[in-house]
Specification:
Aspartate Aminotransferase, domain 2, 3-stranded antiparallel β-sheet, 369 residues, 10 helices, 7-stranded mixed β-sheet, alpha/beta, 12 strands
Amino acid sequence: MKVPVLDLARQYESVKEELDAAVLSVLASQRYILGPEVEALEGEIAEYCGAAAAVGCSSGSDALMLALMALGIGPGDEVITTPFTFFATAGSIAHLGAKPVFVDINPKTFNIDPGQIEARISDRTKAILPVHLYGQCADMDPILETAKKHGLKVVEDAAQAIGAEYKGKRAGALGDIACFSFYPTKNLNGLGDGGMVTTTDAALGEKIALLRTHGAKPKYYHSMVGVNARLDAIQAAGLRVKLKKLDGWNSRRREIAALYDAKMSVDGITTPHVEDFNVPVYHQYVIRTTDRDGLIAALDKAEIGHMIYYPLPLHLQECFKHHGYREGDMPAAEQACAEVLALPIFPELTQEEIDHVADTVAGFAAGTA
């Protein structure tokens, strides 16, 4: 039995009629850039997250860039973030001429360790950028307390966590600004690149909306230097169809994770740890093992898909070498990079496929796979 790490064709079949109609309606309207579909999606996402405003943009990476631009982050500034995340988190900081300052992770949740943040704050620090990795929110209360104490802004990288909850509140309204990605592999996935910025400050939302259109309002009159980071109407129309399905899809991901947990909680395998105050959305189901190469070989033999998120922490990436980080500086993140492995988790997985994945992993741990 072949089990793909992700099969988007199955999702498409489940929404084909509605999705096709939504896309065709945009073609008929000939309104391709921003417009009513984007405005409607922004309102729906703001309501869904409990935010004051939402601004559609061209990608999750651009969402991060716009958020930091709106806060005035630039050369000489520092932004504290995690080394264990997708590159765009730190790349957006660097693109603005600021310095990403890395803080090690909680080895259980893989999210930034709030207890280590304050020691890295300097007079150049302007913001904290926690990541809700794999679909579980970072521990935000102590992060927000530290930020308030030092007069810093908090930007959530919620690219993997739409629908995730922290102490009863959804990702997207926990800090000052939040950033989402609608890349095709995400829980709420578009037909290509797309992103969204949400904020609890309506005035900040207006500034972000201005920045995504070259800082122009009205057209051809520029009050600030922005970028071209608009969301296409076709993307918005498709996302509006899928947003209605999102809670059901996320619930199914949690069901699959529980089935995996039940079978794979064995010696040699560490299943995902979920904090009591969190409701995750399992963008990825990531286990740990000290013999990852052996497990990969067993999965390959069983024709089961897998991915490593992420093989090298950001502080050790070549492009950040000039910041002076060395191996051993972020031990928890470095160890995670050597041990993590993501298994198939998407709502359309069958029971037979779930059993095959779980039995293969458990069998490997027991020495029988």
